[in-house]
Amino acid sequence: MRPQGSVTLRRLQDTRSRDTSLQPFELFIGLRYTRAKRRNHFISVIALISMLGIALGVTALIVVLSVMNGFQKELRTRILGVASHVQISGPGNRLESWLEVSEIAQKHPDVIAVAPFVMAQSMLSFGSAVQGAVIRGIDPQAESRVADVGKHMKAGSLEALQPGEFGIVLGAELARALTVRPGETVVLIAPQGQVTPAGILPRLRQFRVVGVFEVGMYEYDFGLAYIHIADAQRLYRLDDAVSGVRLRIKDLLDAPRVARELAQRLPGQAFVSDWTRSHANFFRAVEIEKRVMFIILTLIVAVAAFNIVSALVMAVTDKQADIAILRTLGAAPGSVMKIFMVQGASWA
Questions:
Q1: Dist. CA 252–CA 264, nearest whole Å
Q2: Which residue stretches of the chain have pLDDT < 70?
Q3: How far apart are CA 176 and CA 157, in angstroms?
Q4: Which of 120, 130, 169, 343 is 20 to 30 A from 143 in CA distance terms?
Q5: 102: CB partners within 8 A, 6+ apart
Q6: Which helix (DSSP H) or strand (DSSP E) does residue 328 occupy?
Q7: pLDDT (0 to 100) of residue 347
Q8: Host H or E run for residue 246
Q9: What angle do CA 85, 87, 89 make, to 5 degrees?
Q10: DSSP count for the chain of H helices, then E strands
Q11: How far lies 139's CA from each of 157, 159, 205, 278, 323, in Å?
């Protein structure tokens, strides 16, 4: 009969000819080291602190990135509730062939909806209050397909804008600055003047407030007002022309690609832009902040990982006698390394 030690030595020597995958005895010894009482309690304290450090670092990393991603999504939702995914405008804020442009845009497979618009700067007056605002002439039915302003109405609705009735929908902050309420009348002062014997006078038009919206973005709530596109064409003397066309696409992240493809297909001097250009500062700032926070929190996790490595180095030093016994029995250096890898993984 062969001695028991010889059989054990033979079995351990056979492991050298096997593949480099983790063997059962390596896993067993590594887990046994983890559960065993250590003679050096200092190593245990370092390992415990390292595990807590990694847990706190990973938790902070997940929480911060989740908050940043949620903030970015909320900001994008609020901005795109008013802004369009892609916008096509003409030179001098005038697009004559907008019907042809709309047909070309609708043929693109990623375009869901198209809506014409008229945009101009004007002054709004109510009583003694005067405020500047961007006036956007829209078709309420078409606008509801490219933007979500209708979902943010505090009073009235976009459908109350009817051609020839000269109704207006104000942002909540703009209405508050003018101290005007739905049903009251404001005076719109157009920048294009009219020639009279007394000279050039600004054109005035009374509009009845039929609604108030609030999207949560001060830029829009304070400086934007909607009127019907037919009233805007008449007020700004555009005849049948518009300022441009707004598009909604399937995936808003594809807006830059869709804008480039449409720019190659459209005739004339049409200018194509997407939401990433018109609000680039917001999203660039959020993206940079998110990357910096990721780097900082990753360094926190790295520091905790270095502590685990130092604890493993001390554990290897503490187990020199055990390593010598395993090597004497025939364990390969790779097997010894895997034992301590199992121990380190269990700490992490």
A1: 19
A2: 1-23, 25, 28, 30-47, 50, 75, 193-201, 343-348
A3: 18
A4: 130
A5: 114, 116, 245
A6: helix 320-328
A7: 57
A8: strand 244-249
A9: 175
A10: 13, 10
A11: 13, 9, 20, 22, 81
Residue 347, token pair as written in the block: 């700490």
* Tokens read off for 333: 């250096």
- Tell me what pLDDT residue 200 has: 65
Domain borders along the chain are: 4-66+287-347, 86-278
For residues 247 and 146, is the Cβ–Cβ distance under 8 A? yes
Q: Which residues contact 118 (CB under 8 A, 6 or more apart)?
A: 135, 136, 137, 138, 229, 232, 233, 236, 238, 242, 243
Cα–Cα nearest to 311, from 24, 27, 26, 38 = 38
Q: Is pTM beyond 0.85 here? A: no
Are the beta carbons of 273 and 259 closer than 8 angstroms? Answer: yes
Report the candidate in 98, 43, 26 with the shortest Cα–Cα distance to residue 308: 43
Strand, helix or coil for residue 29: helix
DSSP string, 116-158: EEEEEEEEEEETTEEEEEEEEEE-HHHHHHH--GGGGEEEE-G
Instruction: Report the amino acid identity of residue 13.
Output: Q
- For residue 210, the model assigns a pLDDT of 94
53-110 pLDDT tens trace: 777 777 877 888 788 777 777 767 777 777 788 999 888 888 888 888 899 999 999 9
DSSP string, 48-102: HHHHHHHHHHHHHHHHHHHHHHHHHHHHHHHHHTTS-SEEEE-GGG-BTTHHHHH
From residue 300, alpha-carbon distances to 52, 64, 316 in Å are 12, 13, 25
Phi-psi region of 104 (alpha: psi -120 to 50; beta: other; left: phi over 0): alpha
